[in-house]
């Protein structure tokens, strides 16, 4: 299955739960201030992010469970799921800083935590820039429906739409809260780094 593959309508699919647990011994990409790291996960054409860990710096902990959708036919065939996990350091006044990434093909029926080395796309691939620990699990089956489907399929679509709306509302609330907290707690750190960049 391709990393950016989008699931067509009226296809059997599965919820796929990906949990980003933690990272260890990451490279400190800031000259001043604290590392505030979040993970950006891309699976099956969708990208989702964890919250920012503002406490543990180069050893962040999230235990964030993210929900994706994968085709059921790929599960039946035993296909692996290409996944990309990128790590960034959050900044207030400029672009977030790239920390590292992990490209991995997931066996959907595997159970248990996995730990892999973090790489950087601008460095020697043989060098590790810390480790990332995650786990994943398959969820329930359902039909990806459209407006021309039967009433039962339409009901599934309505339920999924409602879930998406709720998730969007929660995400927006979390983003607003996180932004407000970062502006209050991290102002001095970012000002110091921006002054250094101008020298």
UniProtKB/TrEMBL annotation:
<feature type="region of interest" description="Disordered">
    <location>
        <begin position="180"/>
        <end position="199"/>
    </location>
</feature>
<feature type="domain" description="C2">
    <location>
        <begin position="1"/>
        <end position="120"/>
    </location>
</feature>
<dbReference type="InterPro" id="IPR000008">
    <property type="entry name" value="C2_dom"/>
</dbReference>
<dbReference type="Pfam" id="PF00168">
    <property type="entry name" value="C2"/>
</dbReference>
<dbReference type="InterPro" id="IPR035892">
    <property type="entry name" value="C2_domain_sf"/>
</dbReference>
<protein>
    <recommendedName>
        <fullName>C2 domain-containing protein</fullName>
    </recommendedName>
</protein>
């Amino acid at each position: 299955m391709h990393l950016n593959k989008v699931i067509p309508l009226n296809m059997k699919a599965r919820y796929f739960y990906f949990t980003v647990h933690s990272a260890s011994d990451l490279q400190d990409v800031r000259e001043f201030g604290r590392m505030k790291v979040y993970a950006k996960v891309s699976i099956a054409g969708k990208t989702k992010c964890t919250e920012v860990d503002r406490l543990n710096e180069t050893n962040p902990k999230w235990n964030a469970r993210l929900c994706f959708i994968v085709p059921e036919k790929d599960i039946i065939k035993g296909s692996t799921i290409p996944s990309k996990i990128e790590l960034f350091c959050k900044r207030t006044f400029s672009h977030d800083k790239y920390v590292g990434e992990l490209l991995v093909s997931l066996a959907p029926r595997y159970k248990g935590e996995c730990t892999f080395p973090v790489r950087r796309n601008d460095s020697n691939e043989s060098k590790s820039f810390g480790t990332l620990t995650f786990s994943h699990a398959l969820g329930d089956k359902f039909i990806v429906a459209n407006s021309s489907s039967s009433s039962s399929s339409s009901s599934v679509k309505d339920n999924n739409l409602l879930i998406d709306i709720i998730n969007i509302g929660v995400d927006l609330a979390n983003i607003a809260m996180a932004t407000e907290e970062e502006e209050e707690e991290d102002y001095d750190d970012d000002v110091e780094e921006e002054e250094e960049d101008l020298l």
